[in-house]
Amino acid sequence: MWLQNIPPLRQRLEDLPVLVTEFLREFNDTARRPAEMATDAMDALLQHDWPGNVRELRNVIERATIMCEDGMIRRDDLSLRSTSRLHVDSTKLEHLERSTIERVLRENNGNKQAGGAKAGDLADAALHPSSADVVSPIASYHCCQPPPSER
Length: 151
Description:
Helices cover 54% and strands 3% of the residues. The protein is mainly α. α1 packs across α3 (53-67). The protein is elongated. Strands 1-2 form a two-stranded parallel ribbon.
């Protein structure tokens, strides 16, 4: 048996443009409209870590050819997930949670029920917790009322 050791894609980024071109050619053959890669999208692809290797790249390009609006794949059309595992301070999480709750309440004119539903939708999309898990901190942050200027 002959084994070939091929380094991961993140170690051979010079192959990425060639692979992207091949995947675009493949998907353009089956798509309703051909797609091209914008410079900002290619830059984003080159900066990604590619933990899923070439298979992940193929899936990202396939999704982008479907999602792009005018046949031009832009950075926003790419479904690249962050691979960084930065340490997150709990106080930063609390600040983020509070500011999100305050923003949602402002957007809903202080209506806790509507704001809670919106916050629940945001949380469901991100982590799938129950809406109650997101709405309960409203009281603890004392942000039940919109600012006086928005009442």
